[in-house]
Design brief:
Blueprint (H helix, E strand, L loop, with lengths): L17 H27 L4 H47 L1 H14 L4 H23 L11 H25 L5 H23 L5 H28 L1
Helix pairs in contact: 1-2, 1-5, 1-6, 1-7, 2-4, 2-5, 3-4, 5-6, 6-7
């Protein structure tokens, strides 16, 4: 009778989601903080309801496009570098196969394999997919980490917009006389929630990140409110 080895459940580690988690939380935080600060600054200058909403919507649109453009340019540069490295590696595989085997075997020796096993593993992997093996183990490029400019741009714009919409809605639904207070309250709550969610998903204690983001949110809003009052008095 054959004994069945129980399958272990797939382990999920916080480090596997830190990349997208950091980008999403950073984008949403930026959307909340920059848009709410701008709205509060304009409202503190005694602007009309229409001007306040225009400022908020403009901040949302400009911020989302800026995040998308910046992310697209940055990740496109990474993609270009990856393509150049892969082209160079492909050329080396065609001209110096034995040297590339030794190079890959050396990487496996550094990870703890003995000389014979490291070379055997290198040969086996390179027979299966030589470029893929070198891309993954020598260059650190894989399907999971490969640069995707359009996807990165869309994700950044979406994250920013999802955060920026909160203060815009708060300004839309509040009387002009209390816009600054309502936008501040909604934005600080949103920042606190993002801090807690991000910390929980990353496996960290939520209170310190939440307090940290609330503190800097208050500072940013206070600064823009002061600027708005100064220019409001002058006009």
């Amino acid at each position: 009778m054959e004994s069945k080895i129980p399958l272990r459940p797939k382990e999920i580690h916080a480090t596997s989601r830190l990349g997208w988690l950091r980008a999403a939380v950073l984008g949403a935080n930026d959307g909340i903080l920059s848009t709410s600060s701008l709205i509060i600054g304009v409202a503190s200058a005694h602007a009309t309801q229409g001007s306040i909403l225009l400022a908020g919507i403009s901040s949302l649109a400009a911020g989302a496009m800026s995040m998308a453009a910046g992310e697209y340019v940055s990740v496109s540069s990474q993609a270009d570098s990856e393509k150049a490295d892969l082209a160079r590696e492909k050329k080396e595989l065609g001209s110096s196969w034995d040297a590339e085997v030794s190079e890959l075997a050396g990487i496996y020796r550094q990870r703890g394999l003995d000389d014979i096993l490291s070379r055997k593993v290198a040969l086996q992997l390179m027979k299966h997919d030589a470029l893929g093996a070198h891309a993954r183990d020598e260059l650190g490029i894989s399907d999971a980490t490969a640069a995707r400019p359009v996807q990165a741009a869309f994700a950044s714009a979406s994250a920013f917009s999802s955060g920026a919409i909160l203060p815009v809605l708060a300004a839309l639904l509040s009387p002009t006389s209390v816009v600054s207070w309502s936008v501040s309250a909604v934005s600080l709550i949103g920042l606190a929630v993002l801090g807690v969610v991000g910390a929980r998903a990353g496996g960290a204690s939520p209170w310190r990140p939440a307090m940290r983001v609330i503190f800097w949110g208050i500072v940013a809003m206070a600064v823009t409110a002061a600027i708005g009052r100064i220019f409001g008095v002058q006009t």
